[in-house]
Structures
1.
Amino acid sequence: MKQLFFIAVGFCIASGASAQYNSKNLTIRETTATEFTYKNLRLFPIYANETFMNAHKDLGKYISLQKALEQKKVSITETVNNTIGQQSGSATVNTLFIENTSNDTIFIMAGEVVKGGQQDRLLAQDMILAPKSGKKDISVFCVEHGRWNYSNESEKAGKTFYGYSKISSNDIRKTAVVNKSQQGVWDNVANVTTKNAAKTESGTYTALDTSKKYNSELKGYTDYFKMALKSQSKVIGVVA
């Protein structure tokens, strides 16, 4: 596989000194060279102690952006003809509106890719989206160089993004979040899709969704680590 991402997130709100994120409550135990290792990726699980686990057991419900989109709990739209505060006007490449319409809290991670709108986009900032949030600006980068139009009238009417793709490769994510280079994002997208035999006319990163080569190799990684971490009940994240 030419590019790989594996993200594990433990997100909690410290509720007191006894439940802080520190070396007393959270540890990374030593592993063997082959334990939690698959091909070129090795994970180091982060374990929480009983004090930490008990302090956070009653936290509110967090859901991922992928699940929120699947369950229609979040709306992502182009800026065109929308208004947020005093801002309105034409769609822009590097800004979208996002709104949590549910009673859940939605976690958004920089590097996630959404499909639809006038072009597929990469979300370029981490965000905790509160329940019934109202429209919020979110920074984005284009990952579909050859399109700036809606695919159908339904999308055009709502100016919406209809689906979730994946989390981008580390190179693309870094180029967007750290370097903030649109041209660099396009260059890295072209590199990744070409190496994974997933080129399309519009040059979209989401072509990887239908690449047999890419998905077969990715499945090998995810299947292995899901099984390896299945019995690790106190793991709240990993170092990769």
Note: The chain is about 25% helix and 25% strand.
2.
Amino acid sequence: MRMRKKPNLIPRMERCAAYQVKDPELWRGRWRERMPPGCGLRLELGCGKGRFTCETAAREPGVLLVAVERVPDAMVMAMERAQAMELGNVCFIDADAARLPDYFAPDEVERIYINFCDPWPTNRHAKRRLTHPNFLDLYRRVLRDGGEIHFKTDNRDLFEWSLFQFPRAGYELREVTRDLHAHCVQGIMTDYEEKFHSLGIPIHRCVAVKLHQEEPPRARTDPEAPGAG
């Protein structure tokens, strides 16, 4: 469902602009400088209105959470939520998941959240799924060994298909469940998740852990060393 255009989008974005990183490529390899030493770094792909993002950041203040969102009308709501909660460990970027290696260095990320992504159900659109092997390979390029992908969806077909893709791409599956909230609510919900759960739709979830493999060398042109962001 397409999100309705938000009134006064630009001034609203400006009021919470401190939470948006407009030059993420300049922070490649340096994201932890935004937090005290020893902090973890996690990504969320497609944060929507930011409920999961902000509640996770509030619960884990020692982690920097970078949320990726391409829809400004959703991002502004997420940033306003972060601002209202006075969070200091979350930021937002308008970025394409296909370009993650341009924004994050090898081994820089410890966890990626993929919550209720578009299932792209037709075969001709399969490459757009965020659990397609092409994307899983991209995630390997920024995740550390032992890093995790936490994947949740209400779409059974997408989930079953994804369970085959993770091992083929060099991940070990753990915590696989086809009804996450069967007995009680588990973890932090997204807005979509709460809606689906209230309708009795089971939530599917798994954790995919990156296994060590010798990665082939890749040619890329790194930008000049950035200054302070």
Note: Helices lie at 9-15, 51-59, 72-84, 100-103, 133-140, 156-168, 191-198.
